[in-house]
Batch of 4 targets.
Target 1
Amino acid sequence: MAQAQLPLETPLSLPGHPKAWKWYDYFTFNVDHKVIGIQYLVTAFIFYLIGGLMAVAMRTELATADSDFLNPNLYNAFMTNHGTIMIFFWVVPAAIGGFGNYLVPLMIGARDMAFPRLNALAFWLNPPAGALLLASFLFGGAQAGWTAYPPLSTITATTAQSMWILAIVLVGTSSILGAVNFIVTIWKMKVPSMRWNQLPLFCWAMLATSLLALVSTPVLAVGLILLLFDINFGTSFYRPDAGGNVIIYQHLFWFYSHPAVYLMILPIFGIMSEVIPVHARKPIFGYQAIAYSSLAICCVGLFVWVHHMFTSGTPPWMRMFFTISTLIVAVPTGVKIFSWVATLWGGKIRLNSAMLFAIGLLSMFVLGGLSGVTLGTAPVDIHVHDTYYVVAHFHYVLFGGSVFGLYAGIYHWFPKITGRLLDERLGILHFVLTFIGTNLTFLPMHELGLKGMPRRVAMYDPQFEPINFICTIGAFVLAFSIIPFLINVLWSWNKGKIAGDNPWGGLSLEWTTSSPPPIENWEVLPVVTKGPYDYGIEQRKGSTNENEEE
Amino acid sequence: MQGTIDSQTTAITADHGHEHPDFRVLGLLVFLISESLMFGGLFAAYLLLRGMHAQWPPEGTEVELLVPTINTLLLLSSSFVIHYGDVAIKRDDVRSMRKWYWITAAMGAVFLGGQVYEYLTLGYGLRTNVFANCFYVMTGFHGLHVFVGILLILGVIWRSRRPGHYSAQKHTGVTMAEIYWHFVDVIWIILFTLLYILTRF
């Protein structure tokens, strides 16, 4: 342990060692996975703000039963693009592109991804796609919802709809290229001393996510390209009057878009499995169960898509099959939830912002999961199809789940990414506002849905006005919850407390390098001598390694 | 707190690990899984549409067989030709690799020519009916892949003009172009079966 005598700040200038990146490097075709990760995270966050403003505008409209704030076409455009942006331009790129790119090589002890240039290309497909999507507002904005079902999508705002399709195909391509990169990286580039059962659970989750993206995204691309042909080139794949069939679109669309739900939640599950054991100071409960349940979700998740189509004239045997498969997919998800709860049980829990968001996710996702199970059963689904019950469900999963998880990840890895800690008081304020806002906005929507209020409408029956007003207040609370977060990030990035290499005492490899990590991650590659979650195990063995500073 | 970390990192590996083995072939194979699913989606849509119609292809749509059959044979044999190129480079014979790759590219170009000829002479256009929609989109999409394959082969030929760029030990690019070409070939076999042969029954 000779090197332990050097102060941590000592710059080790090896010959030929590259310097740190400058600010403008983040605006170029840079191939460093960490730069790309930050590019993804920041770009995605900007889109999150844009999509969030759209949501606030919609909730303002919905505060009263009449159409008095947005005109109905603009409402439809906001509704469509809010969904599209939050899915394709915020959660997917932030979770997979952002955290995935930043963390996977660091966690497996690699200097970069397997295909760095492909990685940069995958990122740079995103800004033009986003620009295309926003530019579609010049042509009225796509009107048909993020699902873009024909015939609605083939007859309304066709120019904007075509731009929408091209934008999605671009991000889809990005997603496929990213998936290829992650699969090869995780499969082949683990540091030689790392066995598969020492792979951090985030990487397991990313592997499952990437496999899912790899096989499902191209099918969406096909569905959308056929739609593009129908809109622009006079074909009739989805025109029943000319021998086509709209249901085929729904199959192609949901074959991707149901797995897309897992693309948005599996990486978040990975983040949870990293954040919880570190801040509970306990080994993760059921490492293998969590790792394999990711793969199980990936496999079963490919065979549940028709539960979105129970009211699309689906034959009874199909409803039966897909109800059962949908209920089965809840099992591996439950395995994870129970494992996290068991990890927390009896842990020495640090209730900081990262952990608060993780526990917040746990509680909210259970609610979203329960409404998901009810929606997955055909009889209930047929009753509440296309009502606010569905809106409530997927916002509990995607906001209470994915977005909470992304926040947890940001609070957890911000010190690694920037070298500085986020302010805890602002973080807790952010959590409290977000938690209240989420429940105020989305919990009443269950009741709205069960009472029969349809979704995707700008005007509604006045009897729903009081509950809608509560939802709108919640939406404003959520909007304001961003402010302490933004102040926190911008201030801490420049002036926050210096974090040091390992502020949380984590054991996975990303904490073995400096914060922020040098360009090729380590001067000397780390060697894995124990599992990533062996908290407290060393002390039991009476190790002699506890003689360093502090 | 620091102690737990150092226990992980004490051992030192000498090499800096800037180089890692070449994973490009593996990456291509993984990517081709994705490509297969893209064609898979098209095939599924086609079969669903076919299943909906009592008569397929619809009345008055005659499927030509002569040119496509010649084309199929051409594309199938080109897979063998390109493999000779791969065998050649493994013997370090760049010249004959270039020869075989030229022949493959030419065969691909003739295939595309045949495709265009078929488009020009068929009795139906893209918009005629759902079968015609499928026919043009599927063959067109496959044709695009053949075109990309030809570009890859030409790229290999272009790079191989520099002596020593490819050798018996180092020919990843050559192998990748070959794998892609075989893939395009396999897709065509399924496409030909679905669009031509099965319409006869």
Note: Residues 136 and 160 of chain A are 5 Å apart (CA to CA).
Target 2
Amino acid sequence: MKDINLTPEMAKLRPLLGEVVSTLESKAPYGAVSLSSRETRTFLVDNSQEQVIEGDPTAGGILTVFDGHTLREKVLSGFDKSALQQGAKDLIKDVSFSKNGKIDTGSDLKVDYKTGMEQDPTQVPTNEKLDYLREMNRRLNSIDSRIVNARVRYTEMREKTIFRNRSADMSQDIQRIRLVIIVTVKGKKGVVFDWVSKEGTAGMEILSFTDQELETVVKNAIKLLEADRIEPGEYNVVSAPGVSGVICHESFGHGVETDMFLKERAKAAIYLDRRVGSELVNIYDDPSYPGAYGSYYFDDEGYPATSTQIVKDGIFIRGLTDLYSATVLDIPRSPNGRRQDLTRKVYPRMTNTYFGVGETPLDELLGRVDQGIFLSKVSSGMEDPKGWGIQVTCHYGFEIKNGKLTEKMYAPIGLTGYVPDVLGSISGVSSDFHLHGGTCGKGTKEYLPVTDGGPHLLMKARLG
Amino acid sequence: MLEKIQKTLTKNPELKSWNVSHVTINGSQQYDLEKTTEAVRQVTSEHYKIDVLCDSLDGEGKPSSGVGTVTLLPGGEISEAIEQAVLTAKLVHNEPYDFPEPASMPVVELVDQQLVQDPSGSLKEVLALLKDSANLLADVRLTTAECFGEEKITHLVSSKGIDAVQNSTQIYLQWVFIAGEGEDEVESFAEIYRRRISDLLLEDEVKRRAQYTTDLLQAQPPPSRTGPVFVQGATLANIVSGEVLGGSLIQVLSSASLKYSEETPWDLRKSIFRGDVKGDPLNVWANRQLPFGMHSSVFDTEGLPAQRVALIQDNKLEGFIASQRFAHYLNLPATGDFGNMELPAGNTPSAVLSEDPHIEIAEFSWFNPNPFSGDFASEIRLGYVVDGQERIPFKGGMLLGNLLDALADVTWASETGYYGNYLGPVAARFNHLQVAGE
């Protein structure tokens, strides 16, 4: 096995991890150890400043023991051999374990993974990255004199992990990158802004923007200066993939993270094998989606990445699990055990969550709407797993008239409703597909990179 | 290791200025379900964050300053890390500026001694009190609780002569109440951040949350109307000063960096509102000295001492919140980080504010106004239609409006309260907002 993906400190400790697991399992029914290093760098260029910001890195070992009842962890900063060995002894000291339920210890894979990249950010000098952002800033400012600021923010996150339990010995080196452009313009209504981003588990090769993409973000920012508020009411709606994605993220994403079942917070728990949407609704979560921003090779508990279908033809068929929830609920594991970083516990979390595609071309979908709204750009969403309310805030949308998009823009637009009503009203699913990257929290914490998306959807929804 | 870093930095002739923060965190976490403990965790972390400031020439040959940052774990390679930071600093080009000079540091209370002395024991006590309080309630069940406690020590040293230490603690508590049965079950999700355990006011908060939960069982569809909207407690604090760990519209628009980039419309000694003020005048302090405030500190990351800044007085902007750099650019006093928001008491008792027929918003799904314009369209998680003695709960619908317009037409309560990042009136009546229901 080659330690091609690891820091030297992590590679040096790796051969000892089996012994640490044995120490943990000398008392506990299940033991595991992870070594984790996460580093973030952000580069910002705008009209008035330049910055290179290093995020607080986390690096160290996580010792885990589990008896099917309570999960105990000790987190050690840094990679010190004796601290790790002593930490394992301390973690099981004075604790009585009793085996409860069947613990699925996962795969016996012994493999190393690394994000495939044409242009590895670590091999690109800082001056080249800054020059790239400066050029992007210059291109944006040349488009329209009403631009007050053009922020170009590039972030690279490197996550290196070794996971070891009694059967698995795996490592992964994940490179996530994201470039966000925010254009602010000033007019009679004050300062307004629009943005566009590209992101993925990939190298810098995915970060190019065409002139048309830059002109579109500037054009929409300027249009926001004249946008009206929408009259509250129920509308025929076509959602862009970004909006579709947030709808599935907030409806059958958060609500089927099965820690919510244990906490009795999820209405979905009593809807297993029941209809929750129209027959056109299929929802998936897939951390193995190639190159997506929320992708990885195995989760933070060593479970190999694969696709999970959550809703099939409108029927809710299964939720997303981590080791704890799968064991206690006695349901199959899925590769969704994720932690923000080593300072945080694992929860069942989404990765790349999306609606499955349909067969209808977008033009045909729009053609079915005499009068309605095209929800173009999403800004945020909020879940309500128990009440199945949904809130999606759209930065803007456009009028649909006689089956065609008009230039009439509304902003902002809030979409609310009862999840089964919204999903049940879906009467058209387009054949195109896009994923959009972002950050997802649980409450106001536990932030993780994710994507959501899918096709365009035709539905009825309450807007305001 | 801090001394070694200082020595290495001092010897480097390429540096204009530098500062180093040595940060250590010790934390405990406990996660409980209704009848079991799901997880317990002990977390320690330690790092050294080094900022170096270098002067160089930009692409057009003009003098510029740039910062390079690097973070080291204990035992890390110091010289190599500093070289990397210097390389970055010389590639970043901004108008010249310098790091802050030393200044007298105020005393700001940030530490809960109980939490420091026995972190995991303290968490157990908090969770036991939560469970005991919940057990007294007949109509709701506590199904989960998470409690985190941590102590953070920051030692900041700079080339300008700053050498200061600050200790702080933080406690986080989350829980869920469930009421009802089967498909009719409802939940209420509570999340509180404070610096000390006694500020959780747990027994009162448990009662309030339990009432919300049982009211959700009776909730009607939302009404549609425009008129007075009454908001109180943490929900009011959220509207005015944002989420406890986040920022607010006022914080964004009073930022000197946004003034420098010409993105805020606000000017000194001019009204922050775009129209006439119909309600009580707005007065705001940005207060980093607030005892046990979640955004309080003795010094910020640059080393600027905590201040209580008179930000908005009688609706007019009296200052910008400026880091050392933007203060230098705009010839303003350097304030450091924003801190917490403080508003004075109003003139009207809360009971009077809620006398006339109105809508009360108890909780939003998420109140997140546009960060520049203040426009919002936020789903209502729980509200009440109040008319005389009648108080009918409802769920759903949206509150629509603009936050600045709402603050220009508000009546503040005469009682004050503290909610983590906000000290001010406990209630307010926004006189003209739209609720979009069914």
Note: The first helix of chain A runs from residue 8 to 13.
Target 3
Amino acid sequence: MESILTINNLTKKFGHLTAVKDLTFTINKGNVYGILGPNGSGKSTTLGIVLNVVNKTEGNFHWFDGNTSTHDALKKVGAIIERPNFYPYMTAAQNLKLVCKIKGVDYSKIDEKLEIVGLLNRKNSKFRTYSLGMKQRLAIASALLNDPEILILDEPTNGLDPQGIHQIREIIKQIAEKGTTILLASHLLDEVEKVCSHVVVLRKGVKLYSGRVDEMISSHGFFELKSTDNSKLITLLEKHKSFNKVISKNNLITAFLSEPMRSENFNEFVFKQDIILTHLVQRKESLEEQFLQLTDNN
Amino acid sequence: MLRLLNLELQKLLLNRTSKILIFISFVLPFFVILLSSLKINVFGFFTLELGELGIFNFPVIWHLTTFFASQFKFFFAIVVVSMIGNEYSNKTIKQNLIDGLSKKEFILSKFYTIVFFSLISTILIALISFCIGLYYSSYTEASIILRETEFLLAYFVKLIGFFSLCLFFGMLVKRSAFALAFLFILFIVEWILFGIMAWKLDSNLAEKIQNFFPLKSMYKLIDQPFQRIAMSKFPEKANLVYDYGAHGYEILIVLCWTALFILLSFRLLKKRDL
């Protein structure tokens, strides 16, 4: 698979604080990646290093095949970091024109990209008159100007109201559907869960996991159960070899599987034991549960 | 190179404050020199005509106009420090780099802009001096006109040197107001050092050393012309004689400072985490 970004043993120290420690991962073309981690886990620092604004302490990284200099590679990348940064006294169109000049892109792209983020009718308003949501959408338009090979988004919905968050997510989904590689850094897990196929999990600058979202923890999922006779069901489950943990809370029994099992087989089995289920749901852990499990264990 | 210049010009010319300051620093001296060369009738009592004093004769005029116009450089210095300060306060420097500008290109785009405006200013001053000189001067032979045009070169180098210093201070402290304060502090420090040296060593040597200091070396490029005009009026007073020329070594000193300031600005940006 064609690699877009390769990071090898990257380390960044701010004085005594190690923000990123010995980080290694690869971004391949066509996938949607999430970088997960609590605040201060080194997400933004990592992105800052590969985007040429933070100096690395040790290790190395290269874009694409490794034969382009970082600032030339960045012309093929679209990136938004933290807050949208533009010249307040220029209009949206003028700001984008400046980005076109830096990236060497034709001006005709400006209207096209403003259309995508729904700002075309405000293109001649000064940037300082924009609301935060509009600023963030303009930042996305700016990142898309060069039809990037990879779009990097660092906390794109930070500080937005629900409507703004929804708008941004819709735009990201549209872009992902077109096959653009995306790298999304966020501490909002449902956000990552909705769009990402791969994740890198960081904590205190150390990589805990990188790979597919659904393979993040070795789990076979769990059943959520209610029945006419809960105590009998619990005893039955605890004896069964396929379950390793049973939790009962507010009349809802959660039974964790230690090996794969289909829900219809399980239903048939308990029915034969004279227990009638009133509630049966088979689930895998949500990203949030997986994430918490992963960060707790380590 | 044109791309980088174009980039910076867009940033500057769309900003109203910097537009006004650029106008003041380059166009205003042009008009003031033009106006002062006209005959001014002071309320009908007497006619003031500076041209009659012989100060608009070739080659003195090159010296006078460049000295006078360089006093207006402070306005563009504000533009230079604010063009760095604004990039930091708007965080657009970060965005520029993310968009694919290299750190070297960022500094170069600022430097090219400095050279560009210095060049325009020099051309403007050359034109106006030439026209006024032709009008007033009693000698209009090419050899006399071309004499002392090195003051134009000195003016050009002086502007570039001074603005490079501003650029460096802007990069160093990231805030426009503090950068201007630094300029003032440097001015004081240079004089304090001069004072100490004059006290410990002798004042002649101290002045020679002081001529290597950044601000003083830039000032020394074009010495004040008043003493020279007085000199031409009273040729018998020998104590008025001083070295007013714009010498090659003086230009070299300022060029060295310029290179140093640009290099330091680049080093600073390269080492910094944004």
Note: The longest helix of chain A spans residues 162-177.
Target 4
Amino acid sequence: MFWVIEMFSKELASLLSKCISCGACNDSCPLVRFIDGNETLGPRARISVFRAIDMGIMRISVDAIEYLYECGLCSLCDRSCPLDIEVSKLMLGIRAELIKLGYVPPYEIAKMRNSLLDIMQPWSREHRKGKWLPPNYSPDKEANILFFSGCWANRAPEMASSAFFIAETILGEKVYSLGENEPCCGQFLRIAGYEETYKDYLVKLREHIRDREIARVLVICELCKATMRDLGLEVSTLLEELCEKKLIKRLRKRRHKHKSRKVAFLPTCSLKREHASLLEEFMKEKFAEMPSWFCMSCGFSLSEISSLKTLERMVDGIFTALKDEKVDLLVVADPFSYWLLSESRKRNKRKVKTEIVDLYSFLVERIKA
Amino acid sequence: MSKESFLSSLEKIVGKDNILSAEIDRVAYSFSAYNIWSKPDFVIRPAYPEEVADILVECSKNGIPIVPRGNGTSLVGGPISSSGAIMSMRRMNSVLEVNPDDMTATVEAGVCLRELLKELPEDLFFPVDPDGLCLSTFGGMVAENSASPLSLFYGTVGESIMGLEVVTADGSIWELGATIPCEGKMEKLFIGTEGTLGVITKVKVRLRRRPLRLFGLTVDFSHVGDALDLYSRLSYRGELMLGYTIYYRDIFEVHLPDERLGARAYTIIPHEPHSLVEFIKELSEELEILQVDVLELDPRILPYWKGNTYLMENLKTTGKTVNFVSFTTNSDLLHEAVSRIDHVGARMKLNTVTIINPGLNWILTGFSYDSLDNKSRERAHKAVEMLAQSLEELGASFGYGTGVGFNMAGLKFKELDNEALYKKIKKVLDPSGIMNPGKVVLGD
């Protein structure tokens, strides 16, 4: 017997109560799969915990809030639910409702919100943008395709510069970058549950980037893509562009010398199957068949801020999976994942033999070879 | 011994990271499928049989109840503990050996069916899939002696077991079964006894050859009695069926495809269905058959049994969860049992879902309730008790294919002399009574 305290709205509570705890979601959760099958880290447990809170079996606590932000919202679980519950939306809904109720997200995330509102960047001013651009870069005045590199790529400058190079060279488009004036796309606010703040931020962002008519936006990060869509701009990721225009085939002529190495590909979650297979076809290397939960979505970038310990355990799990599959090279499409994995590898060089490269540097290597 | 020093003694066995006692962890491990829940005191996650042995010795010494848990897919709350510890077996998740020549596989107890299937050659499979999602672990399936619709042809999980490694409460590790691919003897003691006599750590199973062709037949009836009758006639005709399951009209109630529908039978056959369809159509008037549909299935795609979707559709539409009861009764009483389910459901003002496997004399029924509504939850529990009393008169036996679990643990029944002998064995193997207390013996 328990008291139903009805903490959440009826819509959210009824979504929570829909779950029958079958556990199908856990099977596809990268956190559960990479961290020893620990039930606590999976979507079923997260639903159970917040249902328990709604039912009054458990009290809301700082731990519970931190726990909520540990989920990377990769949405792999949505695809495996036999009742079609969109677990990632449910998690996002809980974050948003808790904020509306006056609860504060983990400190680092709340701090990031303030920084976004203040300087339009998630981190301090020290993380300067556009470091990857040539020193005297000045945007082509006629260019009307905005290359929006995103915050994470700025922490991994080699990825941003390779991507920019591809945009100019292969796509042959007139692209321009906002350089050090590039603001954050603000998706952090949305995935943190700051729904209203995100809407306000979009207005501010629109003002900031519209110094010229933007025909299209090219991005390398799925978070940036979501924002540009919300702004009503035509947007695609560089990889989509390469695949859809069949431009990736242009690269095929220049094959790479290392034919014998085993490569694994860590795609972004919205990457279409045909894109992945086209890429694999192009790469012409021995590809490791990685499991469906081999994913590190951009939503984990919030976990990096609030639940680093869990994320580090997940990264260890990824390295172990790569070792088990005897993977020589991991190609990573998402800038945050690339940054995190390559930084972790730098720290564990002795342990981790697999090389890590971002997708665009990998492609550039082909062009230059 | 204080709780802290007890936990620190366990930490020495499995490491700090594998003892979970925070509130969130306890709630996370308090649920199994269909929202049956009860909060354990802590969770322990061993990775080796030796660790399991040391844990059991510590728990025996301190009288701490321990409940093994796989993937938490039990329909009746098998891995639920109201006190003491949950022992999660999911770190023991290696497929140790697949022998295609002998058609056997050896897995650690925490391996789930999906994980084994990935490792098998294309022509082999393991046929029993109790949750319909291939997510149940082998330890759990053996402990509950799970069944699924294909058990009609392939038997329960227990009938595919060639050997087990189990750990008993005194810390002994036993390798049971035969060294050659045939059944042993003593492993049977641990099949279906729900982890009350020992913890299963390794399982050797018999694999089956995948059928070359498969057809699924759906037959709609006006009356459930006719669906039962068709099974008898097909069986008498010597028809080879891998499974024959009847979905009673209550499962479609929220989304009834045809007002006249009383029951839908679904069967899978491993050969060309033409003559069978003709035979069924000839019976159309006599049995009030509304419709017959045939679909060729791809034998390479598992799970074969698609009937689970009816239950999922029901739950999707109603947004409710189900309190399940699993029982068997004599074949001539199955129809009467369905009437009694109807009666209890109507009296308690609850929707029911009923799945009948006539070849196994097995009915899985449940009362739908809103998991956030206390009153409907209580009514569902009451309904289970009422139904159990009513079914006792029919000589029903509880827990077939699912185990007794947490759901039916409170029901009181006489089970011939099985109970008395079981209790004697239990006393020898588990003198402190720590192993999954309250399960198996109804009313214990």
Note: Chain A touches chain B at residues 1-2, 4, 13-14, 16-24, 26-27, 36-40, 42, 44-45, 48-49, 51-52, 54-55, 57-58, 61, 63-64, 67, 82-84 (CB under 8 Å).
